[in-house]
Amino acid sequence: MKESLLVTGGTGYIGSHTVVELITAGYDVEILDNLYNSKIEVLDQIEQLTGVKPKFYEVDLRDSEALANVFAGKKYDAVMHFAGLKAVSESTKKPLKYYENNLGGTFNLLRCMKDYSVKKLIFSSSATVYGDQPSPFNETLPTGEKISSPYGRAKYMIEEILKDLCASDLGFSVAILRYFNPAGAHPSGLIGEDPNDKPNNLMPIIMKVATGEFPELLVYGDDYNTPDGSCIRDYLHVVDLARGHLAALKHIQPGWTAYNLGSGEGTSVFDMITAFEQASGKKLPYKVVERRAGDLAAFYADSTKAQTELDWQTEFDINDIMRDTLNYLDHQNG
Ligand code: NAD
Ligand code: WQD
Fold first, then answer.
1. What is the mean pLDDT of the chain?
2. Any alpha helices (H) in 116-201, and if so which ranges?
3. For the chain, what is the largest distance between any 2 Cα atoms, rounded to a whole number of angstroms?
4. What's the angle, vertex CA 30, arms to CA 101 and CA 100, rounded to 5?
5. What angle do CA 219, 132, 174 make, to 5 degrees?
6. Which of 201, 223, 295 to mutate to test the pocket of ligand 2 (most atoms within 8 A of CB)?
7. What share of the chain is helix, strand, coil (3-state, %, to 5)?
8. Residue 202 CA to ligand 2 centre (angstroms)
9. Model confidence at 50, in pLDDT bands (50, 70, 90)?
């Protein structure tokens, strides 16, 4: 019997890439999403890539009745929970929207999992839970201090709620995956990051500059204490990240465990501009502006735990990320 999975947020950026890897590996996958930040057409791309069009529920996680109906219809072995709002700066302006959606949706999901005895969960967390500490981050560091946004605090709160759940019910197995900076697209060019709103993250913004939709990239500060003065991040290819979810599912243990998923490599904003120029053969117009409030000078992962316990490590580098993102852009623009 195939193991069956419910993937919340499965039409979104990271969810859709993970669904492709799951189906390819032989899992029976169903997707739940309210399409707030993704498009139904993604299901066709998934079918093109895997030969399978997963069953889809257009359901909002906050709708407890509709959610219970989904769980009543099928006995899932596990849930991968990607669904949530992710615009960090918006969360500082509309904290209630973020807490209501991201915490409220997760409560409903956990209640259904408990009611229907589905006790394996892989949760999309974020390196943001480490707050402002020196890198590299490893999982033994404290979390929850100096988190700069309601978005990040909600991730931390959910991690803690899941700890309580696991302590109260020893039947639960929860893997917390703390992503660093996901980027890139499927090498086929069929799926990638296609947000419904104006993008906030560096890679989608670079692509908007590349297509001429934005006149230039604003580099937020060149006076940080880093080798070239710009901020350093740990960008990881979305296909590597998707495969990290498979590894977590394969190795999940009873109780609560957190893993960093990052490449361990620090890349600066200027390195990203150079990588773009090399991959595209084009110059990227940019202008250095003031620092962005809340940005840390550097953060990157120590992913040793995922390497040793999940047998996972990144295979793609920043040049692959640029190549695949540009390829996705070409596909989108026909
Ligand atoms: P995404 O916006 O592309 O995907 C999230 C999906 O969740 C969307 O399709 C959206 O429509 C859906 N959704 C949101 N609220 C919902 C609700 N109430 N009910 C049902 N569906 C809902 O984002 P992504 O980049 O794929 O991120 C997936 C997860 O990973 C999120 O939880 C995000 O916080 C987390 N994460 C993302 C990053 C990143 O940089 N992309 C980094 C760390 C963690
Ligand atoms: C990357 C670097 C900017 C835009 C955020 C969340 C984090 C996680 C990933 C969800 C920074 C610089 C950016 C621009 C720039 N998400 N930059 N000009 O802030 O590292 O992380 O997304 O969990 O929680 O905080 O990502 O892509 O916004 O920025 O110079 O127009 O690019 O200063 O150094 P960030 P980002």
1. 96
2. 150-168
3. 57
4. 5
5. 110
6. 201
7. 40, 20, 40
8. 6
9. very high
Q: 82: which residues sit within 8 A by CB, 6+ positions away?
A: 7, 8, 9, 10, 12, 14, 15, 18, 124
Is 8 touching ligand 2 by the criterion CB < 6 Å?
Answer: no
Cα 161 to Cα 158: distance, rounded to the nearest angstrom: 5
Q: What is the mean pLDDT of residues 114-140?
A: 97
| Residue 68 amino acid letter | A
Q: What is the pLDDT of residues 308-326, one digit of tens each?
A: 999 999 999 999 999 999 9
CA 59 to chain centre: 20
- For this structure, is 151 an active site residue? yes
**Contact yes or no for 17/239 (Cβ under 8 A):** yes
Residue 294 pLDDT greater than 90, yes or no: no
When pLDDT is cut at 50, 70 and 90, the band that residue 194 belongs to is: confident
91 lines ligand 2 (CB under 6 A): no
CA distance 282 to 235: 21
Q: Quick one: pLDDT at residue 200? A: 84
Name the residue with higher pLDDT: 115 or 334.
115
CB of 50 within 8 A of CB of 44?
no
Tokens found for residue 248: 């977590």
Single out the residue of 57, 66, 61 nearest to residue 81, CA to CA.
Answer: 61
- pLDDT score of 197 more than 80: no
Give the pLDDT mean for 83-101: 96
